[in-house]
Amino acid sequence: MTNKPLISGVIAEFNPLHRGHHFLLTQAKKSSPGGLVVVMSGNFVQRGEPAAFYKWPRAMAAIRCGADLVLELPVGFSTAGAERFCEGAVAMLDSLGCVDKLFFGSEWGEIRLLQTVAATLLSREFEAAVKEELRLGISFAAARQAAIAKLLGTPAAHLMKEPNNILGIEYCKALLRLGSRIRPETIQRIGAPHDAKAPLSEEPIASASQIRRQIANREPFSLYVPQPAADLFSRELKEGRAPASLHPVETAILARLRTMSRQELSHLPDISEGLENRIQDSIKTSVSLEQLISSIKSKRYSHARIRRILLAAFLGLTNQECSKPPAYLRILAFNEKGREILRFAKRSATLPIIANWNDVASLNAEAKAMFQTECRATDLYALCTPVKGPCGLEMTCAYWERKDFFGHPN
Predict the structure, then answer these.
(1) Domain limits at 262?
(2) pLDDT tens-digit profile of 7-64?
(3) Whether 17 contacts 191, CB under 8 Å
């Protein structure tokens, strides 16, 4: 697009936004004179759990820490496995029509091999190799790693062991599938490893998992979060809107599962190979989510996959619904530079942009259905927080309408 400065994108959960995330935003911003777009998960995340904080303060934290425009990744993508999560988020950035680069952090830190692995994962040779490995009864993740080792060698296979490498490869795959003009760029990940149980001693960088544990245990956490974000999160905790968890709705989830038929279970996202039978058998004897997940888990079915399936049941998501592409671009937060990005996007976007509730009314039937799913998910999220929220927050908590909810972007 002529006369348009370079615009970059980042895909994230920010659960919560920490110093490692801040480093990524800062590095991406340096080469993005036109601004930085973030596609961020909403109220539920890939772990199969509610995000610790509502999506609105998390979006505002992103704006305060370097983002210019934050778009919401719909719940059918934010609670999916890595492939669909990445496909949905990349499709949203691509549909803006004005994003030039996609930045992401990785343990590897160099883009070329990540792109090679991504291209291989889309090949017929890989498809044949992974089927052969799956016949051994191992998990798909293990089969994929073994197949890559056969096709590209051990160093490439080792990339598949690290979570941010895996996401980066999936981003590259999604770009290839779309034939997108967006160029991927990776930045060496810094700080504590993903899911680390303790922060690094030599620098104040902790994993999101460790920060969530500290928040849940009412331990100090602000050292590991950029100050502008820490202020927002501290206020949410003080007001009782955080941290969210499944604990307050555990009985509701078990009740929902006990009333579902085998056929209904079979229609949940990520159900295959008769997994619905294993789930239903386990439901009959389980009296807690932890017991239920442990009962269902096997070499083939990971904890994360099972949590996502159980959460989908609670949220009322179906495989048919979650197989559809993004139907709109929902704005969560923006600043003045974000407003400029939106001016470019309005001329080039291939999906409708939701900036206010009049925009929802003009959506087609499929997009309205996706938005109604988001409303339902937020109504249920409001039961996961220490102080329960009412229904209808999707229609009342746009930051430009409710500055008392989580502050002004400054």
Answers:
(1) 247-322
(2) 999 999 999 999 999 999 999 999 999 999 999 999 999 999 999 999 999 999 999 9
(3) no
